[in-house]
Structure formats: C-alpha cells, structure tokens
C-alpha cells in the first residue's frame, strides 16, 4: 500500500464518520438550502453548511458543483470539509476532477494562504484516487508537469488507485529520472502499489542507461514484493555486476523483498556489507536486517566474516550480528574469540554479545572456566557484557554463584553487581555467596548484595560483619561499600572506627576513605586520625580533613592540626582544610582564616574561602575588597558573586568598581546596593551617571540606575 493509501485511511475514516447516517434518517434542512448557504457571506454559516452537506452521504451528490466552488473558499475549515466530502463521494465527484487537478500544482497563485503548504496537493491527490479511473487521463498529463511537487502528487493519486492505474506504469517509470526526494518516493511507491502489472516494465527498466531510473526501478520492485519473485534471479545477478553505487544499493534493498534464494542472496549482501562505499554498505546492512527467510545463512556468513583479517570487516560483521539480536546466538563462540584477542576488549564485540542477550551467557561462562580468577575485575570483558544483556542474564548468573569454578562464581557476583537493583530477585542467592569459601567471591558478592538496594538492614549487617572478615580483601571491599549504605552507614560506624587499628595498611586506608560517610558519628576516631594525618599521603589527608569537617565543633581537638594543613603544598589539601576549620572553629574566629584563604595563590583555595564567607553573611563584609577582584576571573566569578550577594557589601568604592563589570547581574546588584544605602552613596553618583551615558548599555540597566539615583539624591 502506498503512503497515500495509509495516510488516506484516516482521512476516509474522518469523512466516513461525518457522512455516516442511517438510511431512514430524515434531513431537517433541504439540500438546496444548504447549497445556497455554502455561499453565504459569513464564515459560520458556510462552515455549518459544509458540515451538514458532508453528513448527507451519497445523497450529497447534487451538491458537487457547490463543493467545487467551496474548494476556493478562504476559510480552511470550509475547504477541508468540501474536499473531504468530494473524496468520500468518489466517482460521484468526477465533475470535480479539473479543480482537484489544479490543486496538485503548488504554483497556483489563487486561493488562501494555507494553500502554500503540502496539504492541498496531498488532499487533492487523495480525492482523485477515490474518484478513480476517470481521473487517470488528466493525472497522466500532470506527470509531464515542470513542477516536482505536482508530479509527485499525481504519482501519489495514481498509486492510491492501485492496479486500476496500470496505464500510468510507463510514464511513472519515465519520471524515475527525476531526483527530488519527495517526488521520487511517491513515484516509487506508486509503481509498487500498482503491483504485478508493473513487474515486467520495471524489469526492463533495470537495463535503462540512466542510473536514476535503474535505481528507482529496483526500489519499486522491492515495493511490489512477492509478486516480483519471478525476476528475483535477475535482480540478484544485476546486484553482482552493477557499477553504480546507488543502483547497487537499491538492488540490495530488493533482494530480501523479492525472496532471492537465501544462499545466493546472503553471499551478495554480505559482500555488500564490506563495500568501500558507505551508502552501499548501509543498503546491504538494512537488507540483511529484513531478510527473515535467510537468517540462518546470514548468521553463518557473518560469523565467518568475524574472523576476517581485516579488522574493519570483522567489526562491521559484529555490528550487523548485534542488530539481528538473539538470532545471532550461533556466533557467540566466534564473538568471544574476537573479544579476547586484546585487552581491553573491542567494545563492538561486547555490544553484540550483549544484544544477543541471555543466549550469550552460557558461552561466556564456558569461556571463563579457564580464566584466572584474579583477572575478573569489574573492567573484565565478561563483566562489561552483563549490563548490556540486562535482566535476561539474571537466572544464569544466580545459578553460577554455586558453580565449582571460582572464576565463574566471581564473574556471577560481579555481573550481579553491575545489574544493581535489577538483581534484587536473586538477593537470597547473593546473600548465600557472601559466605563463600573463597574471599574473592565473598567480596564481590557483598558488592552485589548492597547494589540490589533491597533488604537494607540485612545488607548493612553483612557489611558490618565483613569489616571483621578474616581476609583483608573482604574487609577492604566492606569499607568501600559503607558510603552506599546511605543513612544506615551510621550504624556500622563503631565497627568501621575499630578497623582504623587493622593490621593491614590497605584496610586502614580503605577505612579512612569510608569515614566521611559516617563523619557525624566519627568523633571517637579523632585521636587515631590525628596520629595518621601528619604522615599520610595527600589523598588520605583530604579524607581525614573531610571527616573532621563532618564532625564539626566536636572535632575541636583536631583544630590545630587542621590549621597546619592550610599551609600544605597541595592546594586540594589546603582547600579542604579551610572548609574543615570553618566547620570546627567558632564563628567569630573564622573570618580571619577565610580572608587569608582569599589571598591564596590557587583558585581552589580562594573558591573554598569564598564559599565559607557566603555562609558568614553580613559578618563577612570585610571580605568585599578581596571578593570584587575575583569577579574578573571566570573560574571564580560565580562563587565570588554569590558571596557578595550574601554579605550585602557597603563599601562604596568596591560597589563603584562593580558598576564597570561586564555582567549585567553584577552591575544591577551594585546599583541596588547603592540605592539601599541612600545618601551615603553620593560618591557613586558620577559613576552611575557615566553608566547611564555609556554607549551600548541596555535600557533596562539605565532605568535601574535612574531609579537608584532618585533614592540617593531625592531632590535632584
């Protein structure tokens, strides 16, 4: 069916609904009166008349002349109802053919504004297709038009008639020489809709010297589909000899539609998928996707192509197999072979394995049986496949948690971790795996358990127990999961703090990393953290300082050491130390520290100081002179301006400087602050007047300044 036929369906339904009446219904208003009303001067009357005429069904045939006149109505609703009624009347509207033919041509100068779009040609084509055979001769004439839209609309109308329009086959084939996309699409679809009668002429057109006609003929045969099967072998043969890329691509499109013998069709399309021309590859690939009858042969051929020495050819084959989805399951072993050839694995092979879905999981498990368990990290190729497969992998992964091979159990646990909350149905199996004999499995299973976001109390209890596990691998994993416990993290704080004394240095480091998650409950750890702080690396010092900040005033014992960290060579340490001092120290003592921070040579520290100054509000007005210069540095502008807004500066010189800022928001803020100061801001008047006179200044800004001047100099 052509697009006209499909789209026309809703038009027919609309018109049918409007025309539907019972055979016994009596019309209240005579048709003659409605016809007269259709030419009334007021729009409302014409609209009502067009609607009532439409409801008459076939009995409205005597209104056709008036409906033809209404096609020129300036009101779209009247026009729309008139053309819908003519379409529904079908052959009874034959007298409307000339007017409808005129509607196919967008170059017409008369008519209302809405006629400039494609709606008029579209609706006219539909009405002509409903009228049928009487409209064919004039439509054939329109096919000779110099206008592409008119030719395309005529093709649309002819295609809507189907086999009835067979005399249009040769003219339509001739018009395949034109390349405007809309017209070409309509012409191809019209030939396809005419169907079997068009097959022989289209087959002849495949030998036309013009490539556009050959390509269009191939696409039209694809539209004809099974009725063109008698020439399937010819199309396949031409696909191997055609030199023009566009024609070759069109022939590829026809191969699955015509039902070319699978072995031959597959060989042609797989070769096409390796073509140097991107458009040809695209056409071949798209044809492969719809070649349902040849999927086994396609998968076999593409699987062989995976092992091609040319990496590009192999990757293209993988991409096509991925698009085919689960039917590509026979390619799993070859895909695994290719994925394992390099580290890290090529993502295209993993993506394809993932798209195959659950059927790829058994093959992955087989491939892992000889894998070194220590190599199966979250970045391992096998684990990276799991999120792509998704929940389909869940049953197989849950079963794999009890497999004899350690590598399989580790993979299953890490894979379930990647699934996150999707793995919640396997919670019991994962919980059992947290007691596995192998510590690597226990550690991975613990992560999966927390990742399910289910049974939070149980997960918290397991993490707490794991912090005391005999194996350091598990204890490290447990510490790394504390933050993910959210509000429940506080419940494990005592056990976590006790782990600061762990004999294993890596465990202690992991515990320090986890402490910010329980900072509010970490006060007992302050003495131990103070012992660690002086000799720790920069990253660890940052974590410890974050803990002190989280504890707040109760970490006062750490204040001297924290102040010392403000002189550290590492700017990140200095910035976090500044935040910590602000959270621990008395509010009255903070400002000098923050002011010193604004003088730091690193923007991270200056921004940290500005953030804390904003919290102090009006009490930090002394910082104005240091914040204003920060407005000139893009990386610091936002945080500095935020601080200035919070402290409500009163320094007239600094506010005058802000009047010259390039940012409208900064200037407007300065003006409002000066206005709030009233007569005290009189020294700013010259600068404010200069701002009004400044070329290019926005009128909105000028109005704001004038209003402010009235408050500063009320009598002026």
Structure description:
With 716 residues, the chain is mainly α. Among the domains are: 1-164, Leucine-rich Repeat Variant, CATH 1.25.10; 650-716, no CATH class. Helix content is 64%, strand content 0%. The chain has 43 helices and no strands. The chain is flat. Mean pLDDT is 91; it is low at 10-26.
CATH class term of the domain at 1-164: Mainly Alpha
CATH topology of the domain at 1-164: Leucine-rich Repeat Variant
Rg calc:
39 Å
Quantity of strands, as a count: 0
Count helical runs: 43
Look at the helices and sheets and give the structural class.
mainly alpha
Helix content: 55-70%
The CATH homologous superfamily of the domain at 1-164 is termed Leucine-rich Repeat Variant
Question: What CATH architecture label of the domain at 1-164 applies?
Answer: Alpha Horseshoe
What does the largest sheet look like?
none
Distance between the termini: 81 Å
What portion of residues belong to β-strands? under 5%
Mean pLDDT: 91
- Envelope shape: flat
Low-confidence stretches: 10-26
